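Researcher: I'm preparing a figure for a lab meeting and need a structural model of a single chain. I don't have an experimental structure, so a prediction will have to do for now. The sequence is pasted below. Please return the structure as tokens so I can convert it later.
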Amino acid sequence: MIFLVFYNFDATSDFFANPNLPGISSNPTTDGGLDMDIYGDWVSDERHISSVHEQQEKENASQGDIWLKTDRVPEAQKQVIFGNIGVNDGFMHWGEDIPETRILKHVAGRCVAIVHEHNTNDIPIATLVGFSIMDHVIMCNGTIFIVTDSPSSFPLLDSIASSTDNSHEGLLPREWNMLSIKQARDILGSYGGFIQGVSWLSYDAIPSNYTLFSLWRTHSSLNASTSPYPFRPPRRLFFRNIPTYEGVRPDVHAPIIRRQRSDSGFHPHLPKAAFPLLGLMYKEDWEDYALMEMPFVFERLVVADFGAAARSTNDMPPFALPLVGLHASKDWWEPIRQNLAKFLHVNHHTQNLDSGQEKTVVTYISRQDAMSGSRLRSADHNALVDALETLHESNDFEVNIVSSEGQWTERLSAIAQSNVILGVYGDSLADSVFMRPSGHSALIEFFPPGIFTRDAETAIRSLGIHYIAWWNDRQFEIDNLPPVASGSDLPQEVQINPASVVHAILEVVTRT
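Model: Understood. Here is the structure written out token by token.
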């Protein structure tokens, strides 16, 4: 029996097309044999081999495209992208010198600067209520351990994460614990696994559209201009409390039933495009580590727990705490936004509308096809579409009208090229963080009167983008935003004045 594994289509097809190899030709013979087993009735055609890859090489190859061939990557860049981890580097034997957890700063209501007493070479670490970055955290049998002889230099465990049983409550000892170095030697032993690089840990059971956004901002606090230390991209994201699939795990002896993947808060294509080095792991993967009865040391762990964050904030969305509590460089989100734009093959550069060489791109994300949630009143939706089409007739504007339920690539391509985005409040506006920044970029969010939430406002303003909230024919900007009021969970018809909305768009893009 012959087994064929096609890993590299270019290399494999070249191999099979080599006329000097006995018994193998570029086209199958009519009498069958080995050629027919390998090729079937396929005819070798260069145009059908890795066409997407070759197109990417031909188009904009000098503009930093995301498609890489390792022979074209400088050695220094290879080290950053691929690392130097060997096949035997996932195991540690520390003997008596057990890895000690490191932390430097904690922000919990007030700013407290803490210097580690036993390590003068600490890499700077930042923590916030519900958002933490630590080195050498150890997980064993499902419990996360902080190993230190200076427990007062760490935040309270309840400010790092919540109980897996109830996100409104603090941690149980079996979930997180703090050990002295001596205790750790006795309990954890002298060897274990080593999880290399940066790991993200999302502790929430309820998915959020802003999980990736919030984790990246937390992580980016180590990439501030004042930090002299290297900044490494994340390797993996653990969803500690979200299973891979929804519903009850079926009996292995029952008929096979196709199950729905669990909602992680974002479209499954998004991390693959915007965070191409990030692997996703779920509750079952975490449980696998727990069942191995072996301590595992996280080289670096970034923790996000919106439950813990919610216990320390009022009208601020829990995901937004690192946006206001942790310093990051001005362009902290740009590498991720540009990753997505390059993947979608749209212009990834910051736009300069004042140059007069590019049009203003306006995208309306319609929720009229959504099965749940609020939407515009039909008459107002139709009038808004007509008004935007009139705007489109101007040579200075390009208009996209996309459905929140539409195809992911089409919707994100429109958003990634847009300077102005408008739509009814809700999860569908979370992708607005990928809009193309310019001095005139803006998000316009429509609410029913009396309702206002800060999710989109806080996220978009952290990127320096203008924000306008809308009730009927009233608009609210940063200096007069309405009070936070979540209102009813029932869907509502939202009313607007389309002419006033278009006038607001014109004001934003002409503002100096």
